[in-house]
Write a structure and sequence with these properties.
It is a single chain. The chain is α/β, with parallel strands linked by helices and 266 residues long. The chain has two domains: 5-207, 2-enoyl-CoA Hydratase, Chain A, domain 1, CATH 3.90.226; 212-258. Helix content is 46%, strand content 16%. It is built from eleven helices and ten strands. The strands form two sheets. A seven-stranded mixed β-sheet has the order 1-2-3-4-5-7-10, with helices on both faces. A three-stranded mixed β-sheet has the order 6-8-9. Helix 1 (34-48) links the parallel strand 3 (18-23) and strand 4. Helix 1 (34-48) packs parallel to helix 2 (86-102). The radius of gyration is 19 Å and the shape is globular. The two termini are 27 Å apart.
């Protein structure tokens, strides 16, 4: 039995070389708090430590929800109504974890096992592959509560599903079902609830059979393409291809093809 490591409102379990990170505050449907964001950062630091040898990440939620957005029940110093500069809180506590997810050195699969609302929606969008349970839904409720969408949702959504649909989600603040999210191209797959995690682990395990250095470079190509001009992207791809060539995995792939065997990547 693999031990379950606990961080601040987050757990990490090893399934072979796949790290399964779960948001872990089920009584609030894993609502985001500053404590949880710190926990995510700590967990990702553990997962990316080289000697732990993780090759892929699955991100999901404990219990019936993926993430219900900001924790509105928290009182004390983290109370959202406590007169904080909310933008400063985003800069100092929330956004470092998002940047860490963007800059992961391993591929990620997000398994949305229930509601993904508010900031939780933004976290879901950080996956390289995003799959959802049939009961899952996505929602940005900011326009109903006097706040602006954050977590880069207004930046990512037009690039993924187009401007018209992004505006609809943000302004009307209505639920988007998993099936509709798949139809719109927001996510990659929909699975029965009881099969979701197994499907996510299978996808992540499949990714671990690919050259690790190559996957890291592919992630850079995708993320940077969102801002690059055509010419900038061509130059970036040339630079990344140089790096891929120096890693040498393609030589093994070509040899394996010629010898009619499975490649053995370093």
């Amino acid at each position: 039995m693999t031990p379950l490591l606990e961080f601040d409102d987050v757990t990490v379990e090893a399934i072979g070389v796949v790290a399964v990170l779960r948001l872990n505050d089920p009584k609030t449907l894993n609502a985001i708090s500053p404590r949880m964001m710190v926990g995510i950062e700590k967990a990702l630091a553990h997962i990316e430590t080289p000697h732990n040898d993780f090759r892929a990440l699955v991100l999901s939620g404990t219990g019936r929800g993926f993430c219900s957005g900001a924790n509105l029940t928290t009182t004390g110093p983290d109370d959202i109504t406590g007169g904080h500069d909310l933008g400063a809180v985003l800069r100092q506590i929330y956004y470092p974890a998002l940047r860490r997810l963007r800059n992961l050195t391993i591929p990620s699969v997000v398994a949305v096992n229930g509601p993904a609302t508010g900031f939780g929606f933004s976290i879901a969008l950080m996956g390289d592959l995003v799959i959802a349970a049939r009961s899952a839904f996505f929602q940005l409720t900011f326009s109903r509560i006097g706040l602006v969408p954050d977590g880069a949702a207004p930046w990512l959504l037009p690039r993924i599903i187009g401007t018209a649909r992004a505006k609809e989600l943000i302004l009307l603040a209505e639920r988007l079902t998993a099936e509709k999210a798949l139809e719109w191209g927001l996510i990659n797959q929909v699975h029965d609830d009881d099969k979701l995690l197994g499907a996510a682990i299978a996808l992540a395990t499949d990714l671990t059979t690919r050259p690790a250095a190559t996957l890291k470079l592919i992630r850079q190509a995708f993320w940077n393409s969102l801002d690059n001009s055509y010419e900038e992207q061509l130059e970036l791809e040339a630079q990344l291809q140089t790096a891929a060539g120096k890693a040498g995995d393609y030589i093994e792939a070509v040899r394996a093809f010629r010898e009619k065997r499975e490649p053995k990547f370093r």
